[in-house]
UniProtKB/TrEMBL annotation:
Residues that, per the record, bind UDP-N-acetyl-alpha-D-muramoyl-L-alanyl-D-glutamate: 29, 152-153, 179, 185, 187
Organism: Dehalobacterium formicoaceticum
Motif Meso-diaminopimelate recognition motif: positions: 408-411
Protein name: UDP-N-acetylmuramoyl-L-alanyl-D-glutamate--2,6-diaminopimelate ligase
Similarity comment: family membership: Belongs to the MurCDEF family. MurE subfamily.
Length: 490
């Protein structure tokens, strides 16, 4: 693609001469290839403008900048734009031929429930016979093909390339987890969403967002942009009507809004909910009447996830028969209230819950379905929101009969320092806890403590198979460790 086409699309200010053929787009100076357009992104820890000279040495043909750089040769072409992240999203779309325009794109955002909801919706739509792509935390998928995922929502260049692959393979619908980071950093600025789904909003990512209001404002961006479409297709928003911030999302949407919920009156509602260790049942109340629903997932929080998926599916024209058929045998989502079964006389459940609300959801559910003791293993990540540590400690102390406070992903922090911040919360409500820095040992002691009728929850890491410790990625999988201990205990 000629640089002139990119410059015209971005309408930026040009410096330098020439119109080279651009061979690709790159924002990492270590990966620049000859002829690339190098995009200078300003990040939290580093600024791509500082690496422009290195990119020139490696053969970059032009630069996308927010300020003209004297460090580059005088004849080097620079395109100045107000925000290089927005520009990267736009040029990515241009490069790949606007693949989002060939797809029905459904974006799901919220603090908790995104992963489960996207997987449920994908399965339901496939039950109807559609080919569905998925973008998310655990993995990306094109139909049944799994592709690796490094972020909940990829950077715009990788995201657009993924959408292009999906379009090339005749994918009809894409269900996408949309994180607050992705929205604030304009990773999805080049993607037109047909549907926006809001699950819930509770405290998270306040290490990145300066305030809860900023976190909320980032989430609202998905809905504020829904009306700015070119596809000509009907757009709508699906919102959890029980969430305290539901009205904010309704006002932001500027498109038809459909609500789901349990407590408040909603378009799609669950009544007479019954939770058991083997699943949940409820009556689905919609305009057409009331219908019994049986799901293989456990907990009220999962009823909310199911309601979100059902609402979208109904609006997409999926038959209720296909919806109920899928939900009754819906497979477990990795690391989401996932049962580790080695024939023991007590359930061991691994869950990704790493926020106060997420932890309370799974522990309140676990308390409801167990007749014995609830034993919890959990920690908090390092270099992340410190404010939630004592809150999560208090929650575990409130619901658990015994808690093991341990290391999660400490990153660059001292694990014991993180655990002591958790302890300020848990010690205020109970003395029934133990501090064990080594996560494997904590899991082992929790399982050894358990007897018939008890329930063990291992929270925080879910599907992850690693620990991040002082710049190193160490193999660690809660499920693997639990299985090993259970086999020895038999």
């Amino acid at each position: 693609m000629l640089l002139s086409a990119i410059a015209e699309h971005l309408n930026g200010e040009l410096k330098g001469k020439g119109n080279p053929e651009i061979t690709g787009i790159c924002y990492d100076s270590r990966k620049v290839q000859p002829g690339n357009l190098f995009v200078c992104l300003a990040g939290v820890k580093s600024d791509g403008h500082d690496f422009a000279a290195k990119a020139q040495e490696q053969g970059a043909a032009a630069f996308l900048v927010m300020r003209f750089l004297d460090a580059l040769s005088e004849d080097m072409i620079q395109i100045r734009v107000p925000d290089t992240r927005v520009a990267l999203a736009k040029v990515s779309s241009l490069w790949y031929g606007f693949p989002d325009q060939k797809l029905q794109v459904i974006g799901i955002t919220g603090t908790n429930g995104k992963t489960t909801t996207t997987h449920l919706l994908k399965g339901i739509l496939e039950q109807e016979g559609k080919k569905v792509g998925l973008v998310g935390t655990i993995h990306n998928m094109i139909g049944k093909e799994m592709l690796p995922s490094t972020h909940t929502t990829p950077e715009s260049w990788e995201l657009t390339g993924l959408l292009d692959q999906m379009a090339a393979q005749e994918t009809e619908v894409v269900v996408m987890e949309v994180s607050s980071h992705a929205l604030k950093q304009h990773r999805v600025a080049g993607c037109e969403f047909d549907v926006g789904v809001f699950t819930n909003l509770t405290q998270d990512h306040l290490d990145y967002h300066p305030s809860f209001d900023d976190y909320l404002a980032s989430k609202l961006m998905l809905f504020q942009n829904l009306h700015q479409g070119k596809k000509g297709t009907a757009k709508y928003a699906v919102i959890n009507g029980d969430d305290p911030k539901a009205e904010d999302f309704k006002r932001a949407a500027q498109v038809p809004v459909w609500t789901y919920g349990i407590r408040e009156q909603a378009d799609v509602q669950a009544e007479d909910i019954k939770i058991s260790p083997r699943g949940s049942t409820f009556n689905l109340k919609v305009r057409q009447g009331a219908f019994p629903i049986k799901i293989s997932l456990v907990g009220t929080f999962n009823v909310y996830n199911v309601l979100a998926a059902i609402t979208v599916a109904l609006l997409e024209g999926v038959s209720l028969g296909h919806i109920t058929a899928y939900l009754e045998d819906a497979p477990q989502v990795a690391g989401r209230f996932e049962l580790v079964d080695e024939g023991q006389q007590f359930p061991v459940i691994v869950d990704y819950a790493h926020t106060p609300d997420g932890l309370e959801n799974i522990l309140s559910t676990a308390k409801e379905i167990t007749q014995g003791r609830l034993i919890t293993v959990f920690g908090c990540g390092g270099d992340r929101d410190r404010g939630k540590r004592p809150i999560m400690g208090e929650i575990s102390g409130k619901y658990s009969d015994f808690s093991f406070v341990t290391s999660d992903n400490p990153r660059t922090e001292d694990p014991m320092a993180i655990m002591k911040e958790i302890e300020t919360g848990i010690s205020a409500v109970t003395s029934r806890y133990k501090m064990i820095e080594d996560r494997g040992t904590a899991i082992k002691e929790a399982i050894q403590m358990a007897e018939a009728g008890d329930l063990v929850i291992i929270a925080g890491k879910g599907h992850e198979d690693y620990q991040l410790v002082q710049g190193k990625t160490l193999h660690f999988d809660d499920r693997e460790v639990a299985r090993e201990v259970l086999r020895l205990k038999r």
